[in-house]
Write a structure and sequence with these properties.
Strands 6-7-8-9-14-22-19-16-21 form a nine-stranded antiparallel sheet. Strands 10-11-12-13-25-18-17-15 form an eight-stranded antiparallel sheet. The protein starts with a helix and ends with a strand. The protein is about 20% helix and about 20% strand. It has about 1000 residues and is of the alpha+beta class. It is globular and about 75 Å long.
């Protein structure tokens, strides 16, 4: 019995799918990594775990037989013979020639005038495989028109229509030849004879229909053979060397007018972005073979696949598919069909659609799946599948995540390549909120699969110098006081502004998206030490001997029965040395939109939308918190005094958040009665004063609590067999003491236990809501184990936000990754009480704007004036300017008391609050718009005019909606500033009847004394 049949028998040819309806309802979809028959199965995602769920049938070898790609010979030719017979693309030289010239090959489709061969027709015959085994019948649906060669006559012209007579003629000529393919063994001689008959059929068709279009392959400007796909106005050209050029049809009025006047048949294409598949060293001297081309019903190419190396034993492959265009034309059969068989020798023959939840709403773009076959590499240990996007081609870049030094645009910094999951001050500067989408000023949108298990990202990473080579750039994650002396990353880029001297480093000019086989420290400069090293993703391949899933049970619940892969970790590590065709796969979408705003909106369409906004009271008035003012010394008396002082200084009441050390022990979730002798009475008094009351909580529990004893006995905490020095297994250090364990948010019973205890607090004391701190996976113990195995570290964050915080109406979180569907305030990470971009005042506007690009419109800036860490407290000027910068952001939060910074500070801040009152109704309305579209409440200046190049690098202004421009002073000692107004007519909000300013220009040296917040509103003229 063949290997593929054996695997199919072991698990059943049509095993139960894992709750497909639930997968779809949660916005998830399946991902399949190509592999050979008999290779270890890929473990599927949870149905709630993002866009990567695999059904059992998709993990079974795809049952579909295709011929391998061409090994053509001869020179690249554009002669009539090539046009008549079609062309193949060489694997080694990039030349094209007739498929029949090779005894082992088959012609492949090329460029915008491509020819494609499709799979065999419907047949009931038994096919013979090598070794003499027989294949069960392989049924083909809709065989007829799928045998027509589809093509376009000229670049940009409509597809050539094929009349019914022509289609029937071609079908009659080709049908019989293709059917015979199924009866032939996979020997070279049989390929040769079959291909000769196919060529004869094509030639005869050409003789019968001489008016048909010419079929000519194309080379790009660098003389590289390319294959071209189109989606809407977007065009992609993929070279046989792995280069990718993303273009867009120029639809500007001037261009269209020129076309009409000149009656030109040629369109104008604008380069939007350039990228490259990072070929392993073994493949860099090779050109690809096109092994697959798919066409839509109009004759346009909708998908293709390139392979480097022997198509039967590839080094790497690149699959490209139009956004939202799964292969539905019969060329690419669904892998769920148990009667479709594949060539068991060709691990690239599985061709499920690349359309998934993370890309299904995209348009004008393409999805790429770059797969590296580790067993074909000399050194697979440090291998990665990388898509590299050129920054310079696309202009300025935005998105990706919160950073400790938040650059706007991103290419003004040097973001070192490192792990991409939420951190609290990560080793390369990645902070608490991350996303998987980036946009550029040229209109390029880049998205990657959020469930890539060991995803690494870098943008304009710094070139290494001699000090880096000696270990001076080695990075590590730290907690608490360990961060006091760390360099704030990412570094500045010294070359971003030509002609200006920068204090930073030269970057590599690329956005790097890498799928790796594991989290590791790395080699050479810029090593990254972080807590996920040694942890294994449940998405890893593993052999069926260790599989504990029962695929035959129709009631199988992916969330209730998860394979405990960590317990078998050592066994699988030994086995992995013998695994065949292990792969790493990087899936990326590239879209070409008219401008950066449209690119952002396209990205936002792929994300979950919240079903409701935060309560309006947190938008209308500031939140007050005890943290920065009292730190851990908070108590009942201080809380009540704070509330009364707020009102005495004529500042508004809204929410009073009681922060650290209100509990009797971390995780106990009850008041320390020594510090809070009458919690219910305190809450009642705060309610009487006009405050709602929230409490600070985190998913951590210390050992000396009753909560720990109860939860440990029930198995409600994250486990680990790895014990750091002087710590028990499962315990870890965080920013406070003592060590703690973490709530296992993958365990539904543990979540219910935790949430019920929070609700008991509400019932017992009248608490209105909670501030949910932490939740980043960086705090979990090394090599952690959870009730449900995680495929990506960010799943811990998602569960903390979606399963816990989302259950409370009045809530805020500080972390997220794929959690845009939860309508709570998402707070920035803790700020330092200083002016600069290194996590100080000048970082908050770029961080706010980045939140909006990432799909988090309900951004809560951190405490006004910062956290006063390390003995640094804000002075009068910094606190006032900080309050002004924050005044028109979605929400405000005070902790350092304004009256403590100076006698007039409360009144100065009161002026900025009056400005907020003029705009707040608009802001509340924007919360509802954000629920519908995820459009940011506070918007980059380019949102108002995405064609205005002046707006791309403005990092100290923002817009509220489309009709308010805010330009706070964020430079120490300044009493004036330059303000940029976009097209339109504007007036100063404080002088509505005053001068009307015409936009599209800078207002130089606009007056801004300490009491003034420059703010402009749009007016009709």
């Amino acid at each position: 019995m063949s290997a593929g049949i054996a695997a199919g028998t072991a698990f059943g040819l049509r095993p139960a799918a894992r709750h497909a309806s639930r997968v779809q309802a949660r916005g998830r979809s399946r991902v399949v990594v190509p592999r050979a028959a008999g290779a270890p199965l890929g473990r599927g995602n949870s149905s709630e775990r993002g866009s990567g769920t695999k059904s059992a049938s998709e993990n079974t070898p795809s049952q579909q037989w295709v011929l391998p790609a061409a090994r053509p010979s001869g020179d690249f030719s554009e002669g009539n013979d090539a046009r008549a017979r079609g062309s193949g693309i060489g694997a080694s030289t990039g030349n094209t020639g007739a498929g029949g010239d090779s005894p082992t090959g088959m012609r492949a489709g090329v460029t915008h005038r491509a020819v494609g061969l499709v799979e065999a027709p419907e047949t009931t015959e038994t096919s013979v495989v090598p070794g003499g085994d027989k294949r069960p019948p392989a049924r083909r649906k809709g065989a007829g028109k799928n045998f027509i060669r589809k093509y376009k006559s000229t670049l940009g012209a409509p597809p050539t229509d094929l009349s019914g007579a022509i289609g029937t003629s071609l079908e009659r000529l080709v049908l019989g030849d293709l059917e015979t393919r199924r009866t032939l063994p996979l020997g070279e001689g049989s390929y040769e004879s079959t291909l000769q008959r196919l060529d004869a059929s094509a030639t005869r068709f050409r003789e019968l229909h001489p008016s048909g279009p010419n079929l000519v392959p194309t080379k790009d400007d660098d003389d590289v053979v390319t294959i071209e796909l189109r989606d809407g106005d977007a065009v992609v050209r993929v070279g046989m060397d792995g280069t990718i050029t993303l273009l867009r049809r120029d639809t500007s009025a001037d261009t269209l007018k020129d076309w009409n006047e000149n009656e030109s048949n040629h369109e104008s294409l604008l380069v939007v972005s350039r990228a490259r598949a990072g070929l392993p060293a073994e493949a860099r001297s090779l050109n690809a073979t096109v092994t697959f081309v798919s066409f839509d019903k109009e004759g346009g190419q909708s998908a293709c696949e390139l392979v480097w190396g022997d198509p039967l034993a590839p080094i790497c492959s690149l699959r490209i598919e139009r956004c939202g265009s799964p292969c539905d034309d019969g060329l690419c059969q669904n892998a769920n069909d148990a009667n479709d068989f594949c060539d068991e020798k060709n691990p690239t023959s599985n061709r499920p659609s690349l359309v998934a939840a993370w890309n299904e709403n995209l348009h004008d773009g393409f999805v790429f799946d770059f797969v590296v076959f580790l067993d074909a590499l000399r050194d697979p240990t440090n291998a990665s599948a990388e898509i590299e996007v050129d920054l310079k081609t696309s202009g300025d870049w935005f998105g990706g995540g919160h950073l400790m030094r938040q650059h706007w645009p991103l290419n003004s910094g040097c973001w070192e390549v490192g792990p991409h999951y939420p951190f609290d001050n990560g080793p390369n500067g990645v902070n608490t909120l991350v996303s998987n989408n980036w946009v550029s000023s040229s209109g390029a949108a880049v998205l990657c699969d959020p469930d890539t298990p060991y995803l690494h990202v870098g943008l304009n990473a710094p070139d290494a110098n001699w000090l880096d080579a000696l270990g001076g750039s080695n990075r590590s994650f730290g907690v608490g006081i360990q961060n006091a002396a760390r360099h704030i990353l990412p570094m500045d880029c010294s070359t971003h502004n030509p002609g200006k001297t920068g204090s930073g480093r030269k970057g590599d000019g690329a956005l790097r998206l890498q799928a790796r086989g594991s989290f590791a420290r790395g080699k050479g400069a810029f090593q990254m030490d972080h807590p996920m090293i040694g942890w294994e993703s449940s998405f890893d391949s593993y052999d069926e001997v260790f599989d504990t899933y029962d695929f035959g049970d129709e009631s199988f619940d992916d969330d209730a029965c998860i394979e405990p892969h960590v317990e078998k970790q050592n066994q699988r590590k030994t086995l992995r040395c013998d695994e065949q065709n292990r792969t790493v796969s990087m899936r990326v979408a590239l879209c070409a939109l008219p401008d950066v705003k449209q690119a952002t909106l396209v990205c936002l369409k792929t994300l979950p939308k919240p079903n409701k906004p935060p309560p309006p009271e947190v938008i209308r008035a500031p939140i007050w918190t005890t943290w920065a003012r009292y730190k851990q010394n908070v108590d009942q008396a201080k809380t009540l005094t704070f509330a009364k002082e707020i009102l005495d200084n004529k500042l508004p009441a809204s929410v009073m958040e009681i922060d650290d050390k209100w509990q009797s022990g971390y995780g106990e979730l009850d008041f320390d009665l020594g510090k809070f002798p009458d919690p219910a009475g305190m809450v009642d008094e705060l309610h009487r004063l006009g405050f709602k009351v929230t409490l600070w909580v985190m998913p951590f529990v210390e050992e000396r609590t009753a909560a720990y004893k109860e939860g440990a006995e029930l198995g409600y905490f994250v486990q680990s067999k790895h014990a750091p020095p002087r710590l028990k297994p499962g315990f870890f250090k965080w920013w406070n003491t003592p060590p703690v364990v973490a709530l296992d948010v993958t365990n539904p019973a543990a979540v219910d236990w935790f949430v019920n205890r929070l609700k008991n607090l509400q019932t017992k004391y009248g608490i209105d809501g909670f501030k949910f701190d932490a939740g980043e996976p960086c705090f979990l113990p090394r090599m952690f184990e959870t009730h449900e195995s995680l495929g990506h570290p960010s799943e811990y964050t998602r569960y903390w936000v979606e399963r816990v915080a989302a259950q409370f109406e009045l809530a805020e979180v500080r972390t997220g990754h794929g959690t845009t569907g939860v309508g709570v305030l998402t707070r920035m990470g803790d700020r330092f009480s200083e002016w600069g971009t290194a996590n100080g005042l000048r970082s908050i506007i770029p961080t706010l704007l980045t939140s909006g690009v990432m799909g988090y419109p309900f951004c809560l800036p951190d405490m006004i004036g910062g956290n006063a860490y390390f003995g640094r407290r804000p002075d009068r000027e910094l606190l006032v300017r900080w309050a002004q910068a924050n005044a028109l952001m979605p929400a405000m939060q005070f902790s350092i008391a304004p009256w403590d910074a100076g006698a007039d500070v409360a009144s100065l801040i009161g002026e900025s609050l009056k400005t907020r009152e003029k705009i707040v109704d608009t802001m509340v309305g924007l919360t509802n718009e954000a629920c519908d579209t995820l459009a940011p409440m506070c918007r980059p200046m380019w949102w108002l005019d995405a064609t205005d190049k002046e707006t791309f690098r403005i990092a100290d202004q923002f817009a509220v909606g489309d009709d308010v421009i805010v330009a706070p002073v964020v430079t120490k000692g300044a009493n004036k500033r330059d303000v940029y107004l976009t097209k339109g007519s504007w007036v100063d909000v404080d002088h509505a009847d005053g001068e009307v300013f015409t936009g599209g220009r800078w207002l130089r040296n606009y007056p801004a004394p300490l009491a003034k917040l420059p703010c402009f509103v749009r007016v009709e003229t």
